[in-house]
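Key result, reporting period 2: structure in, sequence out.
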C-alpha cells in the first residue's frame, strides 16, 4: 500500500481549528489540552477542560509556535509539543525524570525539548510518530536549537498506550537520539545534537 501523504507545519493561530479537530471533545488526554508540562499541578487541578483549552489557545496566539501539527491526506492527524525547555517549566522540575542534565539548560533557549505527542486514533501504528518527530527536529534546527531532548517511554504495550504521550524510545532511537540519563527504569532522557557538522554542541 502506498504511504499516505504526510505534511507537517508549525502550529500557528490559523491552524487552531485543525488542532481542536485533532484533539477532539476530550482534549486529547482527559481534557489536558497539552497543559501538563506548562502549569504547576496545583494550578492545573483548578482548571476544567475548557479553561485548559483556553490556556493553550492563548499560548498559540501569543507565539512562537509551541509545536508541530501533522496532516495525513490533508486531515489533522498528529501533534508534537516542541520548543525551548523554558516553554514547558514543569518538564524541568527537579522531581521529574525529564529534568535537564544541567540546571542552566532549563533557561537556555538553545536546548529544546520534545515533551508531548498526540496521534489521532485512526493514524496510530502507521509510522506517523516517526514523521512528526522528524518534523519537530527540523523545526528545532531551523529555529536555532543546539540540542533537542526527549524523555520517552520504553516497552509500551501497544501503539494505543496512553503512556505514549511522551513518545516511544524506539522512535527517538530511530531518529538518532541517544540516552544521556536514566532517572527511572523505562524512561530514558535522550538527546540529539543539532550543531553543524564539525562544531561541538
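The corresponding designed sequence is given below.
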Amino acid at each position: 500500500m502506498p504511504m499516505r501523504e504526510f505534511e507537517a507545519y508549525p502550529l500557528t493561530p490559523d491552524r487552531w481549528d485543525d488542532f481542536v479537530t485533532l484533539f477532539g471533545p476530550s482534549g486529547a488526554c482527559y481534557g489536558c489540552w497539552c497543559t501538563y508540562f506548562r502549569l504547576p499541578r496545583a494550578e492545573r487541578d483548578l482548571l476544567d477542560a475548557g479553561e485548559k483549552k483556553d490556556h493553550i489557545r492563548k499560548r498559540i496566539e501569543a507565539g512562537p509556535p509551541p509545536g508541530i501539527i501533522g496532516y495525513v491526506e490533508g486531515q489533522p492527524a498528529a501533534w508534537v509539543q516542541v520548543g525551548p525547555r523554558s516553554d514547558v517549566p514543569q518538564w524541568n522540575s527537579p522531581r521529574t525524570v525529564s529534568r535537564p542534565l544541567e540546571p542552566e539548560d532549563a533557561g537556555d533557549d538553545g536546548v529544546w525539548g520534545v515533551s508531548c505527542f498526540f496521534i489521532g486514533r485512526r493514524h496510530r501504528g502507521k509510522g506517523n510518530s516517526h514523521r512528526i518527530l522528524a518534523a519537530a527536529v527540523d523545526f528545532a534546527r531551523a529555529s536555532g536549537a543546539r540540542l533537542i531532548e526527549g524523555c520517552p517511554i520504553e516497552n509500551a504495550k501497544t501503539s494505543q498506550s496512553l503512556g505514549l504521550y511522551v513518545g516511544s524510545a524506539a522512535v527517538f532511537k530511530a531518529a538518532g537520539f541517544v540516552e544521556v540519563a536514566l532517572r527511572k527504569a523505562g524512561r530514558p532522557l535522550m538527546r540529539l545534537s543539532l550543531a553543524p557538522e564539525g562544531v561541538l554542541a
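The chain has one domain: 6-193. The longest strand covers residues 75-84. This case is discussed further under Risks and Mitigation.
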